[in-house]
Amino acid sequence: MAIPKTEKIWHNGKLINWDDAQLHVMSHVVNYGSSVFEGVRCYKHPQGAAIFRAQEHAERLLQSAKVYRMEVPFTEEEIVQAMVDVVAHNGVYPCYIRPIVLRGYGEAGVNPFNSPIEVYICNYAWGKYLGHDSPDDGVDVCVSSWTRIAPNTLPAMAKSGANYMNSQLIKMEAILNGYVEGIALDVSGYVSEGSGENLFVVRKGTVFTAPLGNSVLPGITRATAIDLIRELGFPVVEQMIPREMLYIADEVFFTGTAAEITPIRTVDKIAVGDGKTGPITRALHKEFFNIVEGRVPDRHGWFTQVPVKQAVSV
After folding, report:
1. CA–CA distance, 267 with 250 (Å, rounded to integer)
2. Domain 139-292 bears CATH identifier 3.20.10.10
3. From the candidates 14, 44, 159, 171, which is the catalytic residue?
4. pLDDT, position 296
5. Which end of the chain is more exposed for a tag (fewer CB within 10 A), N or C?
């Protein structure tokens, strides 16, 4: 589905028309993938639009830029305010917000230093990425033949556009083989994550997730899930996960800004548990959506309210 247009996009401190947000074909990012980005969700609450964990997303965006020596002329607070401004102006929510920092049109060649830093933030209507609203709707996934990036090649902790070429290979292979998503292993053969999601495994009442050293993005929904699972009274352990644990797990689920909390029904056509969403995944799913959809108070201070004057139906 084509990305639905909104009226304005934030660019380097100003709101510009959607169609004016264009790059030259010889921009550094087009030729060498030199970008870092975020995916952020803005939810519809009873009191209006609310951006989920905007501060954490802005922090990770600037940290990713720092790894790639990209000097961004905006603070975390200014990035958060820009997200608020673009959602408020466009009036489209619930929505997906895409902040991106890239190297634009400058010199040719791998050396990026003489290409200007551009910052864009757009928002648009977007629904579910995997599965459906019901926690009963698990998804069918496979273990990918493509391995996650190895240490000291590309930095997995930075959310860079270049990393997602690896993700595309994982995703395309899964789709062409009849699955909705793939699970990648790391260079040592341990479970890493999905093409764009973190992964959790439940076995005998304990929840496991791979540590950052297994080529895992420090997911903001991952951190949210860890907090909520512990609040629900279940232990969470970050440790290396062997592939075979996927097949003997009681429950497996994805987390991510796009995926939110998505139960996994089968892995390589082997049923997870009894093939139905398990109690821990179900409890987490319920608690997560109660929070993000504003049915319970924001006890963690995770939301940034947006003063939308007139909402656009989506």
Report:
1. 12
2. yes
3. 159
4. 96
5. N
